[in-house]
Design brief:
single chain, 526 residues, alpha/beta, 60% helix
């Protein structure tokens, strides 16, 4: 045993001193702004990790929600480390139950390290086993088993994050990372409810699933009124209920003001009980967006990014706000930041494709869209966005290829679904098949005002399109109207509440642009 331990210690020492000069030289090259680009990339890859979903070895096999939630919370904690590249949950969690070897998984995800683990729970005890593996040779850099009372699950998550950070040799103080890992509660019951909500929310694709996830967040914040993260998650649920384009929204008789009140009742405690100022600023930005205080929201979001420059959610908020306030030129810097990860991580590619065509350079956005399609040729959501980006730059034939790929991947879904109506309507309009767009419009339910607006704009029936959104003005749903500011073809003039809000924020919006791929027919309603 002593010999084995000495060999292991020698291996760690050799590895540490062998890697240090290479990483230091690479860092020096990057700081100098020149030299060997490959070394710089290697230094970044050395500090990359994927957190795989933890296996559930509980006797009843009923703790998968806890295993998934625990892995996701560790992933989120590690993702806040400035110099650590963490594979997105949507990428790493697709290997749940996979029999692929760790080196192959790491190669597909583009990371140098993999964290895997398992959970076994029963009779008031919980055992969590985790191990950090270097993909290049399969060597176990670190492993640990926690066999504790169920009441210690919070400490387990915190200690895992701290020890992993040490093993990865990140520049951040491990204690600081441990502080980040604290989710803000010492109530085991509240924490377990929160983890169940996280697990459910991560797979929610409709309102029923989103509602079920939110029930757990509501339970967590009730059990611990000082649980900031649970308050924020619950607040986000109600914000989605104001978005008429969200798949997570329910048809409800509640007034927009009643929904806003539900949001305020939750975002207030999230701000009050946040343990870190950066988290408090993120919640304040969400509240400022609700109140159409866009300038303040931008300022707060920039503060978040000053501390967490790679925070995807903050970057998404910033480009969205800059788009709504018509600051197109200012969008380029955050778009470039997002693009730097877009070919490595699917969720970053999706974010980039959602906003790049709204930025200052549509040709560049279209070129990048083609790169995204080559990188992910079978991703339904990305193909949906790629087609739109190409059409905005007038590349109808390339858009048709993206559309046909999207159609093959999407398969047979109801024509009324939002994921199936818009792409064929776009392509038909761009190719002059206006009767096809009319048919799709006639098939939409009357209450689906979001999609009706899009199809009417594709038919160049702008007066009718403006009238379709008028119920939002009458009901006082300013948030839903404001979301349309992301569309350059949208004219806010018919909606007095939106115009007044824009004037208060001194938003200088240029005239609405003509949709470049709309139907062009004689006799179309102007």
């Amino acid at each position: 045993i002593i010999v084995v331990l000495l060999l292991a210690l020698g291996y760690f020492a050799l590895d540490k001193f062998a890697l240090a000069p290479r990483q230091q030289a690479a860092a020096t090259t990057r700081d100098a702004g020149g030299g060997n680009e490959t070394d710089g990339k290697q230094a970044i890859l050395d500090k990359s990790i994927a957190v795989l979903p933890f296996a559930d070895f509980s006797q009843g096999g009923d703790q998968a929600w806890f295993a998934d939630g625990l892995a996701e919370e560790i992933l989120n904690s590690l993702a806040r480390t400035p110099d650590l590249l963490v594979a997105a949950r949507t990428s790493s969690f697709k290997y749940k139950g996979s029999t692929l070897a760790i080196p192959q998984i790491a190669k597909e995800l583009g990371v140098a390290h993999v964290l895997e683990g398992s959970v076994r729970s029963g009779a008031g005890r919980v055992r969590v086993t985790a191990q950090l593996i270097r993909a290049s040779d399969g060597f176990h850099l670190w492993s640990q088993t926690f066999d504790r009372d169920a009441a210690d699950v919070i400490a387990i998550q915190e200690e895992l994050a701290r020890q992993i950070a040490s093993a990865m040799q990140t520049s951040m103080d491990p204690q600081a990372l441990a502080d980040m890992a604290k989710v803000g509660t010492r109530s085991v019951e509240a924490y377990q409810a929160y983890l169940r909500g996280v697990a459910e929310a991560s797979i929610a694709s409709n309102h029923a699933q989103a509602f079920e996830a939110n029930q757990f967040f509501e339970q967590a914040r009730t059990l611990d009124p000082g649980f900031s993260a649970a308050h924020l998650r619950a607040a986000n649920y109600w914000y989605n209920q104001l978005d008429i384009t969200s798949m997570l929204r329910a048809e409800t008789a509640m007034s927009p003001e009643a929904i806003r009140q539900r949001f305020r009742e939750r975002i207030g405690p999230a701000i009050e009980h946040a343990t870190l100022e950066v988290d408090r600023n993120a919640s304040r930005a969400a509240l400022a967006m609700l109140d159409f205080r866009y300038r303040e929201a931008i300022e707060l979001t920039r503060k978040v990014l000053a501390e967490r420059p790679d925070d995807r959610d903050a970057l998404a908020t910033l480009v969205d706000l800059l788009s709504r306030t018509s600051q197109n030129a200012a969008m380029q810097a955050p778009l470039d930041k997002i693009w730097s990860r877009a070919l490595e991580r699917r969720d970053w590619a999706s974010l980039h494709m959602n906003y790049a065509h709204r930025g200052p350079d549509r040709r560049r956005a279209a070129d990048q869209a083609l790169e995204v399609m080559r990188r992910w040729p079978d991703e339904e959501e990305l193909l949906y966005q790629v087609q739109r980006t190409l059409l905005w730059d007038g590349r109808v034939e390339a858009a048709r290829e993206a559309f046909e790929r999207w159609r093959d991947v999407a398969g047979d879904v109801p024509e009324q679904a939002s994921s199936s109506v818009i792409p064929p309507a776009r392509q038909a309009a761009a190719e002059g098949r206006c009767d096809e767009v009319e048919r799709l419009l006639d098939g939409l339910p009357a209450h689906d005002i979001g999609q009706r607006w899009h199809l009417l704009m594709l038919l160049d029936r702008r007066v009718e399109a403006a009238q379709v959104l008028m119920p939002l003005e009458r009901s006082g749903n300013l948030q839903a109207l404001a979301g349309h500011l992301n569309y350059r073809q949208f004219d806010p003039a018919p909606y007095p509440s939106l115009v007044r809000a824009m004037q208060r924020e001194n938003i200088q919006r240029p005239p609405a642009v003509a949709l470049p791929f709309a139907c062009k027919r004689q006799g179309a309603t102007p």
